[in-house]
Amino acid sequence: MSPSRPPAPRPAPTRRGSPAVPTGSPATPRATPAAPPPTPWVAPPRSGSSGPAADGPGPREASRQPTPSTPEPAAGTSTVPVRTAAPATSRTTYEVRRFRGPVRPAVVSTRSAERFAERARAARNLARRQIAYVVGGTLLLLGLGYLVLFSPVFALDPARATVTGAGTVVAVDQVTAVVARHEGTPLPRLDVGRLRAEILQVPGVRDATVSRDWPRGLTVALVSREPVAAVPEQQAPQGVAAVGFALLDQDGVQVGRTDKAPAGLPVVTVPVDDPRTLQAVLSVVRQLPPALAAAIGGVSAQTQDTITMKLRDGVNVEWGSADETALKAAVLTALRASPAAAGVHTIDVSAPRMPITK
Fold first, then answer.
1. Quick check: 192 and 225 in contact, CB under 8 A?
2. With contact defined as beta carbons under 8 Å apart, do 318 and 346 qualify?
3. CB 169 within 8 A of CB 226
4. Domain containing 324: what range?
5. Cβ neighbour number for residue 285 with a 10 Å cutoff
6. Same domain, 287 and 186
7. Do residue 141 and residue 243 come from a single domain?
8. Do 331 and 254 lie in a common domain?
9. Which long-range CB contacts under 8 A does 145-152 form with residues at least 24 apart?
10. What is the DSSP letter of 205?
11. How far lies 154's CA from each of 184, 186, 188, 213, 260, in Å?
12. pLDDT tens by residue, 61-105
C-alpha cells in the first residue's frame, strides 16, 4: 500500500484587484503591518481652573470617557496585545457649606423614654434654679429692709445733729431738746415734717429746714425772728415788777422783752389797738439801710400816713406813709451828708422828690 499524500493546500481567497496566486504553488503569507497603539482620550482643561483639578480628568470624567475602538485583525494574521498605561490622575475635592448656626450636640440618649426623662430632669433643674433665685432675692430684700428701717445702723443720734441760723433770740439747747425726742428712730422712718412743726414752736424761730445727714445725723437750718423794734409795754407781765419793752420782729411777733430799750433798736410808739399802723411802721424800719436804721432812736405814728422818726442826733424826720421807702431813705441819707443841711432840726421827706428842711 502506497503512502498517502498530504492534502493540497486550499487556495487563499483573492480580493478584487489583487493578482491571483497560481494553483499548485505554496501560498506565501504576506506581512501585515502592526496596528498603531490606541491614543488615550484626554479631557480639555477647564477655563479658569487651577490646581490639581486641571491636571487630568477626575473619577467621574474618566468614567465618561469614550472607549477607543480597536480594529479587528484581518483573517490569517496574528496580533500582539499592546498594554496602554492609564495616565496617573489626582484630585482634591473641596465642599463649601453655608453656615447654619452652632452645631447642636449629639443626642445623649436615642430612646424616646430616656429622652423624655432627660427633658423632665432638665425642667426640674430649671424650676429649682428659679425658685432658688426668687427665695434668695426675697431674703436679700428682707435683709435690706430690716437694715434700713429697723436696725440701729441708721438710728438718729442727737449728738450728730447740727443747728444753724439761731441768731440772737433762739436758744439752741431748746432746738436740740426737740431733736432728742426722736432719738433712736431710723432716719428713713423719721417724720421730717412733724419734727419741723415741733421746732417752729420754739420761741424766736421764724422758719426751719430739716434734712437727714446720713447715716445717723440731722441738719436743722433756722431762720430766727430777729427783733427790729422795741415797743413799750402797757403793763408789766405777770411776775414782773416793772414795765419794760417788748421786742418785735418784722412781722410784729414778740420775740422777747427787756427792762430797758436796746441801744441798737428804735423805740416804736403806736396805738395799742391798731395793728395796721404797727405793720406800716415795722415795714419802714425793715427796709432801712443798716447805717440809717442804727441812727434812728424812735418811731411814732398815729395813722399809717403820719409816720415820724426821731434821730439820735436830735433831728426830726417827717416820713409820711410807707410808700417809696427806698427813695425816701436815699434822700434822707444825702441830705444828712450835705453841708447845707447842717444845723437843721426837721427834714420832711414825705414827698421825696421835693424834700423840705427846717
1. no
2. yes
3. yes
4. 229-357
5. 22
6. no
7. no
8. yes
9. 148/186, 148/188, 149/186, 149/188, 149/189, 150/186, 151/186, 152/184, 152/186
10. E
11. 9, 5, 8, 10, 48
12. 444 555 555 555 555 555 555 555 555 566 766 666 676 666 655
Does one domain contain both 282 and 352? yes
Helix then strand then coil, in percent of the chain rounded to 5, is 30, 15, 55
- CA distance linking residue 289 with residue 180, whole number of Å: 40
Contact 308, 299 (CB under 8 A): yes
Residue 117 inside a domain? The answer is yes
Residue 73 lies in a domain: no
Say if residue 253 is in the same domain as residue 181: no
Cβ atoms of 311 and 295 within 8 Å: the answer is: yes
- Is 5 domain-assigned? no
Print burial letters for 22-56: b (CB count within 10 Å at least 16), e (below 16).
Answer: eeeeeeeeeeeeeeeeeeeeeeeeeeeeeeebeeb
List pLDDT tens digits, range 283-304.
Answer: 999 999 999 988 999 999 999 9
Domain shared by 262 and 316, yes or no:
yes
Beta bridge partners of 182: none
- Asked whether residue 185 is assigned to any structural domain, the reply reads yes
* Tally of structural domains, the chain: 3
Please check whether residues 247 and 309 belong to one and the same domain: yes
Residue for grid cell 503512502: 3
Instruction: Measure the CA dihedral 322/328/333/337, to 10°.
Output: -140
Share of the chain above pLDDT 90, in %: 45
Residue written as cell 423719721? Answer: 190
